[in-house]
Amino acid sequence: MAKVVTRSQRDKQQIARFINVLNHAMAAGNLSQRGLCNRIDITIGTLTKYLRGDVLPFRVGLKIQWNLARELGVTLDALCAYYEEGEYATSVSVDVVESWIRSEAGQADLPRLMMSLTDAGKRWLSQGDEEPAALPPARIKPYTWPIEELKEAGVSDKFRERLGLTDEALKRLAEAGEFDEELAEAFSIACNYELEAVLEAFRSREPIA
């Protein structure tokens, strides 16, 4: 008899964020699923398992996660922070920078680093005391189909909220691609779709044909 694996809410959140990261990488790089596989060095079968929510992100090999972080233009630490907290870590401690500079990689890149610091200092001096604003994080195209479909189906706000299809949950789905199976199941009930079709639509950020 096969063992039934139950996921904790934390596991479900991390899996949903992992799926979001994969979709974000494809959208940001204008890549197909096979193209992403080539970039992060996995097979299409492995990617299918990831997108199906079968694998926890922290069970994925370090090399794959490093490749994925590179595609997103973030550090590996930032990517892991996103899996844990839902936000990319953007700050880097002085200790981390100092450790990197003392390493072989840091020593090799020291001339470029010093040149960048010089250029940055000149820009700050020319702008007075005001430091340049941080760049906004990369965003994927909002996934509005579920919201539009609920309106098209005539689902009342009261019934929608009762099912758990709250404005906050739908916003996270639309903007960050975050969802769990409970949200997908509630949507399938509200709009009379098969659960598997809804899960596939949410993962691929496409409407159900």
Structure description:
By secondary structure, this protein is mainly α. The protein folds into three domains: 9-85, 434 Repressor (Amino-terminal Domain), CATH 1.10.260; 94-126, no CATH class; 145-204, no CATH class. The protein is built from 13 helices and no strands. Helix 12 packs across helix 13 (195-204). The radius of gyration is 21 Å and the shape is elongated. It starts with 8 loop residues before the first helix and ends in a 5-residue tail after the last helix.
Along the chain, the helix and strand elements come as HHHHHHHHHHHHH
The CATH superfamily title of the largest domain: lambda repressor-like DNA-binding domains
Query: What is the domain total for the residues?
Result: 3
Strand content: under 5%
Ranges where pLDDT stays below 50 over 5 or more residues in a row are 1-5, 129-138
Mean pLDDT over all positions: 79
> So what's the CATH class of the largest domain?
Mainly Alpha
User: How many helices does DSSP assign?
Assistant: 13
The CATH architecture designation of the largest domain is Orthogonal Bundle
| Number of DSSP strand runs | 0
Relative helix content? 55-70%
Q: How would the global form be characterised?
A: elongated
Largest sheet: none
Our Rg estimate from Cα atoms comes to: 21 Å
